[in-house]
């Protein structure tokens, strides 16, 4: 048995799935399928590019060439809208005085926009609430996003990681109140009224008084 | 009653469950069973004391004598800890300057305390996230609690209902971050550190700058 198949449970002959040679889209699809299964089975932290590549029957370098990083592969496998997350992260850049307003508006706007952007997030959240395995995946993904993508943008604010995760929790609560439990009058107010009310709270948590 | 009849599929007549006349506890139990079914079937708003009494085979006046109001009957049927909710409502009383701190501490303390207090709330929340029917129940129950129990305590603050529901959403987000998704470092900070960080945000939403 070849060494690289040693811990593969059932090495599927990927090349025999169809009556023609697999093109790039088939390979991408096979990688995403393998990633979804592997993240679900092992969790975000324990899953490795190497193992996902093995499951998909491709080289790890190809997975990296297609998806860049484990983080981005996870986002692609879960259909997480990476553009939207990038806009959210970008809101942390800029003058500290309007930090709360930029972040609040970016966050709430994401949930008012295209269903193709917020529905995968909503689906991940619904799963996380009822399944610890899904919660662990979401947690580890957010962790990676926060630690690498957002916390450094706050510069030398003390307790930046705590502030970012607390502010994110507050904003998640507003989305839950508005989109899931649908509490009045939070659910019926327009976006700008909410931003005006919530932004100072997010500002004080992110930047202090 | 013979042991093998205990888990018989045939529906046993309620009055024959025991070898004595049904006492007050049986009646209370029958009312709670009827309330749970009726709230689930019709939702909180549409369910009536009269109909629940009919389902339970008792007089509506008896339901009111046992449970006082539809709100309290719902709380009892769902095992919602009414004492804990009362402590939360009471935190809205007192000097405006410490409003955010009192409410934040009361809210977060509830989720650090006895599982018998927060588990029914967690169960309701988990159901609400995945079932619109349960979300409607929770929403209508919170609405009744807020409108009748908390908003008047804010006195003549403009937009009191919006402020209370927005602040509650923020605090719910902290609980979700801490107890469900378990985002670091929100999950590992002690209660007082979180209160110190979050209370000014709740203050500014409840009372303005």
UniProtKB/TrEMBL annotation, chains A, B:
This is TetR family transcriptional regulator. Residues 48-67 bind DNA. GO terms for molecular function: DNA-binding transcription factor activity; transcription cis-regulatory region binding. Residues 1-28 are annotated as: Disordered. Gene3D superfamilies: Homeodomain-like, Tetracycline Repressor, domain 2. Pfam families: TetR_C_16, TetR_N. Residues 25-85 form the HTH tetR-type domain. The keyword Protein biosynthesis does not apply. Keywords: DNA-binding. Residues 1-13 have a biased composition (Low complexity). It comes from the Bacteria.
């Amino acid at each position: 048995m070849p060494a690289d198949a040693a811990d593969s449970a059932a090495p599927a002959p990927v090349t025999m799935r169809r009556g023609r040679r697999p093109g790039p889209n088939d390979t991408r699809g096979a990688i995403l399928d393998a990633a979804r299964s592997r993240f679900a089975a092992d969790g975000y932290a324990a899953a490795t590019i190497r193992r996902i590549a093995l499951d998909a029957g491709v080289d790890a370098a190809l997975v990296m060439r297609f998806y860049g990083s484990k983080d981005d592969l996870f986002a692609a496998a879960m259909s997480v809208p990476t553009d939207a997350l990038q806009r959210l992260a970008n809101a942390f850049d800029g003058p500290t005085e309007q930090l709360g307003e930029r972040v609040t508006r970016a966050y709430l706007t994401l949930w008012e926009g295209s269903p193709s952007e917020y529905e995968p997030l909503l689906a991940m959240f619904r799963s996380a609430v009822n399944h610890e395995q899904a919660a662990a995946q979401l947690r580890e993904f957010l962790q990676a996003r926060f630690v690498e993508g957002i916390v450094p943008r706050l510069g030398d604010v003390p307790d930046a990681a705590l502030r970012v995760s607390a502010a994110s929790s507050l904003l998640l609560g507003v989305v839950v109140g508005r989109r899931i439990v649908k509490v009045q009058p939070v659910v019926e107010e327009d976006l700008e009224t909410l931003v005006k009310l919530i932004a100072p709270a997010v500002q004080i948590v992110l930047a202090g008084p």
